[in-house]
Amino acid sequence: MELNTLDFMTSKDVLALKRSGINTVNDLLTFYPSRFVNYTVVSVNECIIGENVTIDGICEGKASVYNAKNNLSIMTFYIDSEGYNIKVTIFNRHFLRTKILYGKYIRLTGKFDKDYTKFIASEISFDELTSDVVSVYNVKGITDKRIREIKEKIYYKYSNTLIDFLPKEIQEKYNLLSYDAAIKFINIPDTIEEVELARKRLKFEEILKYQLKVKYMLYVRKNYPEGVAIAYNPNRVDEFIKKLPFTLTSDQEKCKNDILHDISSRYKMNRLLQGEVGSGKTVVAAIALLAVVSANYQGAIMVPTEVLANQHYYTFKKLFEKENINIVLLTSSILSKERKLILKQLEEGTVNIIIGTHSLFQKDVIFNRLGLVVTDEEHRFGVRQRVSLVGKGYLIDHLKMSATPIPRTLAISLLGDSDISFIKTMPGHKKEVITKYLDYSHRHMVFEHIREEIKRGRQIYIITPMINDSDVMDLKNAIDVFENTKRYYQDVAKVGLIHGKLSAQEKKAVMDQFESNEIQILVSTSVIEVGVNVVNATSIVILDADRFGIAQLHQMRGRVRRSDYQSYCFLISKAENETAIKRLDLVEKTSDGFVLAEADLLNRGAGDIFGERQTGNIDFKVANLIEDKDLLEEVNELADSLFASKKFFTDEYKLLLDMAHNNYQQTKENLE
Length: 672
Ligand code: ADP
Ligand code: MG
Known about the structure:
Blueprint: H1 11-19, H2 25-29, E1 35-38, E2 53-59, E3 64-69, E4 72-81, E5 84-91, E6 105-112, E7 118-125, E8 133-136, H3 144-158, H4 168-173, H5 179-187, H6 192-223, H7 234-243, H8 250-264, E9 270-275, H9 281-294, E10 298-302, H10 306-319, E11 327-330, H11 336-348, E12 353-356, E13 370-376, H12 383-390, E14 397-402, H13 408-414, E15 419-423, E16 434-439, H14 443-455, E17 459-464, H15 471-488, E18 495-498, H16 504-515, E19 521-525, E20 537-542, H17 550-557, E21 568-573, H18 578-589, H19 593-604, H20 606-610, H21 612-615, H22 629-645, H23 654-671
Parallel strand pairs: 5-7, 9-14, 9-15, 10-12, 10-13, 11-12, 13-14, 16-21, 17-19, 17-20, 18-19, 20-21
Antiparallel strand pairs: 1-8, 2-4, 2-6, 3-4, 4-5, 6-7
Bound molecules: adenosine-5'-diphosphate and magnesium ion.
Adenosine-5'-diphosphate binds at residues 246, 248-249, 252, 275, 277-283, 427-428.
């Protein structure tokens, strides 16, 4: 029903709402206030001094006004509230002076100052409220009060047309309002408690719809498979594993089995392989690629940066040294003549594995028989970029690798249609990094430690801070630290400097020197390039550690995790604010990447970790991934149980099922 057909709406109302995209009765009923203000009047003896409250009473007489300055007036008057005599002060409301008369009802919002005899008001009203709650909409051209009036009329006229998506059974089990009641309470609440109940119900529905959509994808993918079952050669795969210079850890073994099972099944694999840097994901990916190649399919590895593409290229070349596999590298720095040749071979099928950056999803990249796409750090790609590579056959198996621990909250929402495999234990006998959080005044202990480590033949990273996004300051700081370090250790060590202003080649030159132990101390701004692997580096010193996020600190600490020697991480900070201290304490005490990731999520919000574009996909109106973490967890369990019991496919759930199914159809069409 269009709003402009309603007789109680003026054309001005309609226009104002239209400008905010609200055209229909349903639009308006599902257009919720941006916030609610609670004007519940409280008794004076329930008020806490200094806290914002609303009280009411009767005016004791006229107000007096004092003009302190041109733009500041102070008005004072006395009221009686339940027998308390209270002096009220309010600024810049002298124009209300004539309304303050003996015996008049008055409602005040503000706070008691020092004791219960003085009240500093910020708002005055003279009407008794019909509702304790005022909804704030902030729509240009129409008042909040008017919106509520319209909503009230509309609600009573159209509430019988509202459709409830949630079956009775769920409403009862989770103590939820009916949709009708929720819509009433969110739009025309009498109390703040009603608002809360309505919000709970609406959030629940919103999250449940989302989770069901996502899990429906997973369900269809697994139960009505449309992909290809790749009949890989198990002997060749086993031989390869046997010839590796190490045995797989039990986590790697399990992940490998998960993946090979996916590959040989007819459903499209959509699996995330999670494990921190150095946990051995690459080998697992190599096994998957070899399996695909053994069945005459091609594999593609997509990475976010050229540096990483190059590294992977050499790693895989080495891993497949004894296999008869043609691996090529395709990046933007490859000359067009060579590129043409690579693309020709790819199309003919003589290339088995291709490694590259975005260049892999250009139109002219045509595969002969693509069987598996591996993406590394895939959350660093845009959504569109990912879709288009996997879209080179939307049913192609997809293995996503990530070294960024993804907090559970995001895993169950954003990645609900993925299977997830974890590598939790590090290969080899790697010791835990000893982490120490120190104040600046204790930094000399660290400097002495560095000297000792260098004497033992070890190497050191020193990370200089990021200064509020100021490249110039960062650089100056890094150079200062570099010069000082050089001077301080001139008798025992050579020092190198790496920073964001260096070209890729210059960076590589310094890294090579560090890798070959020509330099023993590497001073660097912020994060060292992903994938750097210097086993002899045993200590990392992070200066002004409070400038970095939790996940960043943990990732930097990972640089020294690969050593067989005892390794150390020093967080040096002069921060005095409590949250910064808490963050550093947490990193000092915890080495579990998932715990830290969850904390990081609470600290920074989802957008920072995944990029706004991806989290923006979850278009929650009422719910919030971070605040409603527990609800998300509860609803997620419910969604799982619905699929497990097949209840989701009964009549009772028809509305939800149709919604999920339509979403599935649409997504599929978008990919095809
Ligand atoms: P990731 O890709 O997770 O960062 P890599 O696969 O690059 O980790 O492995 C890190 C290092 O550990 C490599 O040098 C690799 O050869 C080695 N490695 C991998 N798996 C094992 C294992 N099971 N035992 C011993 N070393 C391993
Ligand atoms: Mg790796």
